[in-house]
Write a structure and sequence with these properties.
A hairpin with a 2-residue loop joins β4 and β5. Helices cover 15% and strands 43% of the residues. The protein is globular. It has a 13-stranded mixed beta sheet, covered by helices on one side. A two-stranded antiparallel ribbon has the order 12-13. A two-stranded antiparallel sheet has the order 15-16. The chain has 248 residues and is mainly β.
Length: 248
């Protein structure tokens, strides 16, 4: 599962409770179902918000120093959004969705997605719940951490997510099932199960919090004779327009 897909999926289902009691407890599928729907509606109905996003990758479950770290952001304006996640910049407006990958020097244009308008259906939950083996909640102060464990054979063994008393996610931890080589270039390298932590900070609400310049695609592309072309700053990138209907 790709990092951005993981981020988008877990952001949707990050959960919180309005009246919680301190301590550890099990969580039922019924409770999770209600909460998943509520948190999805929460993120969907908030027209404007922004947050800083920190991805940290670790070689195993116990490491305290990340071997890789990236700092980015996520901003939403109604059905439009922009983000910098794992080095990739994405900007969506009413007409296009633009993705910029500096590592590959690649810029793609696609039609806007409907992710921000999506709802969490019973079918979604039924599919998700098939792979769960246990769910627990631990409450300390105004933070609740949920641990969801999965059946063997999936990409994740379990993940943990922490939310505050406003039902807003503050941290996620993904614990991967498959072992990988710590040093990919050494055939005799130690193997371990990695984990990724995603921290959300500086969370703000309101239209005034979203920086307009980050929603501007003009830095990367412009219209030229009815078609999108690269700006001078990115003229050495490859541009691909993947839209079926190119309505500029």
């Amino acid at each position: 599962m790709r990092a951005k897909a993981i981020f988008s999926f877990l952001l949707c289902i990050s959960i919180g409770l309005s009246a919680q009691q301190a301590g550890q407890s099990n969580v039922s599928l019924g409770q999770i179902n209600i909460l998943f729907k509520a948190i999805k509606e929460n993120y969907r109905d908030m027209e404007f918000y922004s947050m800083d996003v920190i991805h940290s990758s670790y070689v195993d479950y116990q490491s305290v120093v990340p071997y890789e770290k990236s700092i980015g952001y996520f901003m939403k304006r109604k059905n439009n959004y922009c983000s910098l996640l794992m080095g990739v910049t994405t900007i969506q407006n009413e007409k296009i969705k633009l993705s910029v990958n500096p590592q590959k020097k690649f810029i793609s244009i696609s039609s806007p997605d409907e992710y921000m308008k999506a709802v969490f259906t019973q079918a979604d939950f039924d599919l998700f719940s098939r792979f769960i083996t246990s769910m627990k909640r631990d409450i300390i102060g105004d933070l609740a951490t949920y641990r969801i464990e999965y059946k063997k054979g999936l990409s994740l063994s379990f993940y943990e997510m922490t939310v505050n008393n406003r039902n807003i996610i503050t941290r996620m931890k993904l614990f991967y099932e498959r072992e990988i080589a710590v040093d990919s270039e050494n055939p005799k390298s130690k193997r371990s199960k990695p984990r990724m932590e995603i921290e959300f900070t500086n969370i703000k609400y309101g239209e005034q919090q979203s920086e307009s310049r980050k929603f501007d695609t003009g830095k990367y592309i412009h219209l030229e004779n009815g078609k999108y072309a690269l700006s001078d700053e990115f003229k050495d990138y490859r541009l691909v327009d993947m839209r079926v209907k190119k309505d500029n």
